[in-house]
Amino acid sequence: MDAVFDEPNDETLAAMKEADNLTKVDMSNYESFLKSLEFR
Q: How many whole angstroms separate alpha carbon 17 and alpha carbon 12?
């Protein structure tokens, strides 16, 4: 039960916030997916 109700530590919270800011990948079709992977 501890794993279900345990609060994440500061490092985990920071990683979660960073993950929210990542660029989204367009997977609506293969061509768009490849284009979204290109470096900007």
A: 9
